[in-house]
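Dear support,

Our group has been running a series of protein-ligand predictions, and this particular one with copper (II) ion is the one our PI (initials K.S.) wants archived with full inputs and outputs. We had some confusion internally about which version of the output was final, so please treat the block below as the authoritative record. The input we submitted was:
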Amino acid sequence: MATVINPRGQQYVDLLDRVWGERRGLVGWLTTTDHKRIGIMYFFTALAFFGAGGVEALLIRTQLFGPHGHVLSPAAYDQVFTMHGITMIFLFVIPMTTGAFGNYLLPLMIGARDMAFPRMNALSYWIYLASGIFIYIALAQGHAPNAGWFDYVPLASKTYNPSINIDFYGWGLIFNGISSTAASINFIVTIFKLRAPGMSLNRMPLFCYAFLAVSFALLFALPSLSVACLFLELDRQLGFHFYDASHGGNPLLWQNLFWIFGHPEVYIIILPAFGIATSIIPAFSHRKMVFFPLVALAEILVAFLGFGVWVHHMFTVGYATVTTIYFAAASLIIVIPSAIQLFAWITTIMTGTPQFKTPMLFIIGFIVFFIIGGLSGVTLAAIPFDQQVHDSYYVIAHFHFVIFGAAVFPILGGMYFWFPKVTGKLYHEGVGKLSFWATFVGTLVTFFPMHILGLMGMVRRNYTYPPGLGFSTLNALETVAAYVLAAGLLMIVLNLAISYFKGPAAGNDPFEGDTLEWSTGSPPPPYNYAVIPTVTSPYPMWDKQDRELDNKRLERGEGVLALGHRTPGTTVQDARLDEILNMPPHSIWPPVTALGLAGIFAMLLLGHLFIAAGFAAVIALTLIGWHHHGVQP
Ligand code: HEM
Ligand SMILES: [Cu+2]
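Confirmed final output from the archive:
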């Protein structure tokens, strides 16, 4: 909206700047409730955890470079691979997609001025940060969780793991889950109630459908993990017997509760990647996405069907075939909505005029890795084959192609794609392409040979292996490739960091995107849009007449809502104007509440239940202060 037509329009913009202007300095970031600033905080925090998870991955690979590695002791190795898994999944990939991309882009894409619950949004971030620090204090003390990211009992029980390691896992994940649950509620209400008037559900971008599916999946999956961890801590700290077979409990209860969460979790990881892909492909193919309604439906179906397959992680526990066969069939059915999306992406590219700039290259990489990971996934749904390769490197290969290849590549492509929007600068295209090829080749060579090692019998989670089993050459190759991959990732970060300071100006819409965020400034002003945008199709940015109409509306002061922190509330299906919502400005309550919660979990970890109750009282007081302000929470 940089192009203001007349002085009257400029007056409205000045007023909006005064009303929505952010506080400066550290206090400004500490008390912000602006979704863009919160998105940026999520981005750098998740990037730091990606760095930590990456260092852990390189430590693992260096230890496995050759037989009889001595980089890590067996005990240290257990902590490192466990922390690698926990970090990459709970502290990097989900906060990066939902926390950073979702937070920054979703309100912009639906034409809103903020998320529905701005202070709760800030709270989600501060809890995420606190829970990440909580878990990393364990590593700093040398007591990191060490029973793997799915933490099976009885290995994780007090009997076999008497120290505090597992308690950091149990309480840390419950703590972290509060952040994701609050964020999901925020996304669902924002998507259903804050879309710009006219953006009916059939005009909502596919990116938003992916985030709607993710939010519902998180909301329904997380309670299973939280209950599982609570039972674990009751067993460990208060001597209950939920998982203790010798006292009538059942260790398989943990596996079922964990994977009822765990499998939907993998779709929670990949669905935002689908959303990013559906944003980048139309822009660089210069055409609309084919089968739009089917792709939207497929995104939701993937999340829904993902709740019915969890036992495919447990084909070796001895369940009857009548049980496992259902889960095998259900796992194969999920291929259908995934394939619908795959063919829609490929058809859109092939029937458009594709331009292979860096963001698009990462999406091509994503499609290649999604196919490789998807195909190995199909083989793992075949029970007899799975029983052969369960817990081997074949499984490690499979999920790294889907989680790293298919989930992280769109994140990397998205970083390049929206960098100009967030910073107002262009990145270096040549270095961008180079960083893609290093990352692509590094990923392929790091993880593909793992299929072969798995078929040869190399099992996961072993800190070393003897010579003479034929594992050495492929492991050495994988380790070298992992360093090439790391170099590629570093090149991306450096390219964007240097371009932030030295890059040429990008303008509002350097890639001719189709969604609304490209219609406002780069970076967007704190109020996002001077005029709440007019929307008449799923491709609002390509509806030039509507964008011109908005300029005219600004001159007339229509839809400006400049009196206070305001954004329109609209009806769920047709997005007809329903009410004007008053949004809270900055607030100190979210970080204070998160600090109180950290106090509770620290005391639960140490077994000081009464002090934990004391912290709960403090939080009750902050919530009274929080609700004292009579505006949106
Ligand atoms: C950056 C490149 C990466 C490399 C080189 C890498 C390498 C590895 C290796 C070698 C293992 C097996 C350790 C063992 O079983 O002994 C592993 C496990 C794992 N990785 Fe990665 N990984 C990378 C990125 C990621 C990402 C991005 C994610 C998720 C978003 C991820 C999630 C996991 C999980 C969940 C495990 C299982 C840990 C466990 O057994 O508890 N990895 N990784
Ligand atoms: Cu699964």
